[in-house]
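Whether sequence alone determines local backbone shape is best considered at the level of individual chains. Part of our work consisted of pairing the sequence of a single chain with a tokenised description of its backbone. This step matters because it turns folding into a mapping between discrete strings. For completeness, the protein is quoted in full, as a sequence line and a line of structure tokens:

_____
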Amino acid sequence: MRVIVCADAYAEAYFSALKGLNHTFEIAGLMAENTDANRKFAERCQTQLYTDIDALPDKIDLGIIARAVPFSLGGCSTVAEQFIERGIHVYQEEPVQKDILIHLMKKAKKNSLCYRVGKPYLRLPAMQAFCSCMKKVLEDRAVYEIGIDADLGICYSIIYLLMNILPKARSLTSLNFKEVSSGRYVVFGEMGDIPFQFQTNALRHSPFPVLHRIIVNTDRGSLSLNGSQGPIFWEEAVKVPLENLSFRESRQYISSFVPSCQLIWQNQAHSIGKFVLQEWPSAIREELLQMELAMQMKRQDAVLAQKEILCAGNWEAILGNTYSEHFEGRREAVKHDLWNPAVLKYSINKKTDLTGEELISYCESLEFDFLSLCVEQRAQTLLVTMLHFLQEKGLFLSADTSYRAEEIIQKVGVASEHEHVLLRWIDVLSQKGFLTFINGKYSYTAKVTEEQVKRGWKEMAYLWDYRLSSPKSTEYLQNNVRSLSSLMDGSQKATLLLFPEGRLDFADSLYKETVILQYCNHMIARTVTDYIKKKEEDKREGKHNRLKVLEIGAGTGATTDTILSHLSQTPYIDRVEYLFSDVSSFFLQAAQKRYEVNLPVTYQIIDINSDLDGQGLEKDSMEVIVAVGVLNNARETNHAVAALLKILRKGGILLIAETVAEVLDILVSQAFMMEKPEDVRKGENKTFLSAEVWRKILNEQGKLIGEYPKDGHPLNLLGQKLFVVGKKEKICI
């Protein structure tokens, strides 16, 4: 069967549904307005775009009319009638007004065609689960009232559902219609002798039926469906015992151990993306299979037709005027204002870091597509920010001007010690297509506006804050962006932006509250704990010698905290001698104040870029060495790794956590406080080594025995790796 899809918004759901039924249906084209977006969509779907019904090809069997049809094509009902006149069966997504419905049904019957009003909403898993629950409630309990708060676009389906479930539900009675505010309506009435209250916001219409809530109040409690994906709750009624002064002696006591609120059903595919891309097309697919059966019969089902007409009449009685005024007459796009509800959880516990199994569970729940979007959007925002900064400096303001690297450096006024950072900017902007490099000169491909930059940062905060990092991390980056001029010329020290007035809140947000570093720290702590446990249980090693653990570049103590927390939960904490080291006495002083006196921690200043022997670290002296985010600041990575392995005991482990991708936020912040590399990064003009290069170095100097996240894990998109390394001899782990 050849199908034409007529839609103005989100035709993708119908195309996705039809592709899943390609053994039955063949997409003949898209009927829509001649816009750039529609042309691109048709091209991507490899189908023809039609802007006029007269241009449609012959032999179209089915016309699918989505709820949103452009008025330039005549609107839903006009297109449906034109399809029928051309001998095309029609599937029209609800709602339809009663007189129009009757007219189209009669016309389809006269032409031996099938006209069907589609209600894919009723085929969603959450809705089907709620129907089952509601039927059981009606069997067992007395229903007092039904409350509905719904987006205008799905009211028709909800009315149809109530008509199917409620006893004696036919025409509505005792209607009282009230507009409580602009576009906000409340309707009181009865359906099947059960009172109902219907609230709808006529200005809130969305192409997808997401916004709604249904509550069924009974003598025992309330059943509620919260949105098109659920969940479904049962809330037990709290009754005050009247027959006895003592609650324990009352009849209510027997049920007092029942949870006051129970989760009855929850959708596993809980994201809006899964709803739009999977559940909604699946519901449409089921509808189209029913449509196929009706088309084969070439006639209307009389019982279903009467039920449809009754539903249309009830819908029109409740919302007909509302629909006509606020939907048929308006096609204004709904503004999508970004707001992250995760801030509500933070408002309660003031905590963004996760621990233990809670952390692992959260990391496993992160989807590849979501992380890809986060990383791509963050990179795009930072690239736009960089180019905007250069344009504010008078560079790349017109396409006919180009600059050599030396000219850009001079124009920006960058200090000599930061020239490599600016050169890295230019290189990245060129790689990503924001600049072109021809004959030794750079020119721009597109101008960046301040509005683009602001929108990018707002979207980045929405995606990252509370989900992958702390809002403080975003605030820290924004502070750096505002200070880029002074960072470039050296008048602003980058360390003072990371530690303003000696505070650690920004540093903690970066090292303690980003999901990927929490994950790495957890895996480090687990690996160290497992190693020490095995060593202690091996009698051949002797239990009386303390196990020495060295942390290089411990900084704010984010990794230290996690390791000591894990070890404190074992009987082996007293068998460990933990050396907390950093190049700065500032961190050592802060650590000495933070850690308890009875913890086995000592402190020492150690510089990874200086000879370790000369700093009192003897050969083969350490069982475990931890280095998180410190070797990227080593001038020569090979030498640093070799030096650490030299002081590692035979059978010991070296744990290295490093950034392994060109993370762009570093280029507007911490790059201004990092050592200029003298290894392979210098020749390749890179800030960080790739995972492949790290593997090569580690296997040359020692033996790579494990890494996290493992290949294929979505967290790899965040550009951090933990490497577990040993000497070339046998490793005890």
